[in-house]
Design a protein that fits this description.
Layout: H1 9-23, H2 28-35, H3 42-49, H4 57-66, H5 71-85, E1 92-93, E2 96-97
Helix pairs in contact: 1-5
Length: 98
Amino acid sequence: MTEPKEAPALTRLGHYLKTLRRARGLTQHELLVRLGNVGLSQSRVSRLEGGAYHPRAGHLEAILRALEASEHDATAVRRLSVQAVRPEGWAWVGGHGW
């Protein structure tokens, strides 16, 4: 699975998830059906895939399960999720992220 390297992590995260969904032959609606009632709307899935929404950890894990992601893909997605929240150059200073 490849994603654009120069894009921000949140954009790469969305691209990766969209690529996984499409590789499974699923529409966003079909993904939502698989997810059940986890609190995600089609609008949020669309924003996530477009790099405009960062999901909660529980939602991200539910998406990975629904997509039957391999351990390799799940690890890559989790890494991108962390990078989206904690961009390069971010470091702990005195117990706070700066």
